């Protein structure tokens, strides 16, 4: 599965997942969401991909993941959780894994569980990325040409395994793929929006936001795979705010990293 996956373009964002891992007698997982006011909500106490990463690495631990963005809404949080957890497990158990090893395990588990096809490859490092081939070893361009804030609104999740497991839907997605890679940042947003419209994944809510973004000349695209919109630039927050809670983030300069060693 190392060379299985998607090709395409996207943005690695600063707002990701924090994974805290500790030694434990039995494996456990807690998925938490932290609101902007600091309150946390437990979303789930199971995660087959995170259980799989522990089994694959041969370790027993408790994993707690936390994020601010809505889960399952197209922000690549499953890939972020896998990369963060594997990076932390590697440090906790002194496994000696390289960043490539961590990315390989995480990518293969994503493909196995149909939670993503290219997010791990992209999130190995930062930037606006263009993936020219499938898998973590393909050529990936990383461009840092979006210095201002990005903003997003989400109307809910799209069940990723359902889409990835549907041959007819995937055929439509493939046929919508642009003939050429995006050039500058403006072209990236143009192609992103066109792909969303032609892939059959776009919802009525996203169409309404796109119409307003076009009217106000705000570059925008669809969060993949999620029922939401991301937009860029000074007017993006104002344009998106009538549609719901607006999340702000930036282009990340790095991939997964250790934030703090807890003793």
Report what the structure shows.
By secondary structure, this protein is an alpha+beta fold. The chain has two domains: 8-141, Ribosomal Protein S5, domain 2 (2-Layer Sandwich), CATH 3.30.230.10; 145-249, GHMP kinase, C-terminal domain (Alpha-Beta Plaits), CATH 3.30.70.890. It has nine helices and eleven strands. It has helices at residues 48-57, 77-92, 99-113, 119-123, 160-164, 167-175, 185-199, 204-215, 236-240, and strands at 8-11, 17-23, 28-34, 40-44, 61-67, 128-131, 140-143, 150-157, 220-222, 226-232, 247-249. The strands form three sheets. Strands 2-5-3-4 form a four-stranded mixed sheet. Strands 9-10-8-11 form a four-stranded antiparallel sheet. A hairpin with an 8-residue loop joins strand 6 (128-131) and strand 7 (140-143). Helix 1 packs parallel to helix 2, helix 1 crosses helix 3 and helix 2 packs across helix 3 (99-113). The radius of gyration is 18 Å and the shape is globular. The two termini are 36 Å apart.
Whole-Å distance between the termini?
Answer: 36 Å
- Major sheet: 4 strands, mixed
Under CATH at level 1, the class of the largest domain stands as Alpha Beta
Walk across the major sheet and give the strand order: 2-5-3-4
Share of helix among residues? 25-40%
> Could you give the order of the helices and strands?
EEEEHEHHHEEEHHHHEEHE
Contiguous uncertain segments of 5+ residues: none
* Total DSSP E strands: 11
């Amino acid at each position: 599965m190392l060379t299985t996956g998607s090709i395409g373009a996207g943005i690695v964002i600063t707002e990701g997942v924090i994974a805290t891992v500790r030694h434990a007698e039995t494996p456990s997982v807690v998925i938490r969401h932290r609101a902007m006011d600091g309150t946390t909500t437990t979303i789930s106490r199971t995660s087959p991909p995170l259980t799989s990463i522990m089994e694959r690495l041969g370790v027993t631990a408790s994993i707690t993941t936390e994020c601010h963005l809505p889960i399952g809404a197209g922000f690549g949080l499953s890939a972020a959780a896998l990369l963060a957890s594997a990076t932390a497990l590697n440090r906790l158990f002194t496994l000696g894994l390289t960043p490539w090893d961590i990315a390989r395990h995480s990518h293969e588990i994503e493909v196995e569980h149909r939670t993503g096809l290219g997010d791990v490859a992209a999130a190995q490092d930062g930037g606006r990325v263009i993936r020219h081939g499938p898998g973590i070893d393909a050529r990936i361009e990383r461009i840092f040409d979006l210095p201002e804030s990005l903003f997003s609104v989400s109307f809910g999740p799209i069940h990723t395994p359902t889409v990835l497991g549907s041959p007819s839907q995937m055929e439509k997605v493939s046929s919508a793929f642009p003939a050429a890679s995006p050039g500058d940042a403006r072209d990236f947003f143009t192609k992103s929006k066109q792909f969303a419209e032609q892939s059959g994944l776009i919802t009525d809510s996203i169409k309404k936001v796109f119409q307003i973004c076009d009217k106000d000349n705000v570059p925008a695209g669809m969060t993949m795979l999620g029922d939401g919109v991301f937009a860029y630039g000074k007017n993006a927050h104002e344009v998106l705010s009538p549609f719901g809670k607006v999340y702000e983030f930036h282009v990340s300069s790095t991939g997964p990293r250790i934030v703090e060693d807890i003793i």
